[in-house]
Specification:
The chain is an alpha/beta fold and 153 residues long. The chain is 33% helix and 14% strand. The protein binds zinc ion.
Length: 153
């Protein structure tokens, strides 16, 4: 497996290169229990296929850290597309919108990749080399098995 740095999104935060991705939940989200359970399953799906570890943080404390980039999950009950890039600033909070149209673990994994800076053309999947770069920014134990799972995406 060869991954070049250029395969990573241009706004990839260097502190993510150890494979640890901080995230928070929106405290004021509607249906916080559902949000939590959907996101947990999406993260488990990704963690089986990557060298990434998603670590939950306190949203209030995270907002005070000016130079930290983290994923911010919120839930909307409106039937809107979640297959979108919802953040504009590369540093800081990156919003990820979970909606009833994307609740399966692979779908939550997909929108998480958008939040991590990946993009694709309309109705096309992500470019495989780019997904690989983002999912394996570092080496981890059982990487062979994880790459094998990745192939089953
Ligand atoms: Zn998408």
């Amino acid at each position: 497996m060869s991954v070049t740095d250029t395969d990573l999104p241009s706004d990839w935060p260097c502190e993510w290169s150890e494979g640890t991705i901080p995230f928070v939940f929106d405290f004021f989200s509607v249906n916080p229990k559902r949000l939590r359970s959907l996101v947990r399953k999406g993260h488990e799906f990704l963690q089986k296929r990557s060298c990434l570890t998603f670590i939950e943080h306190n949203p209030v404390l995270m907002a005070q850290q000016l130079n930290t980039t983290y994923l911010y999950y919120t839930y909307s009950g409106v039937l809107e597309s979640c297959c979108l890039h919802y953040y504009f600033k590369p540093v800081g909070r990156r919003m990820i919108l979970i909606t009833p149209t994307c609740t399966l673990p692979p779908e939550v994994a997909h929108v998480t990749l958008h939040g991590m800076g990946l993009d694709h053309r309309k109705r096309e999947p992500f470019q495989e080399s780019r997904v690989r770069a983002a999912l394996f920014p570092t080496y981890c134990s059982n990487i062979e098995g994880k790459v094998e799972n990745f192939g089953k995406l």
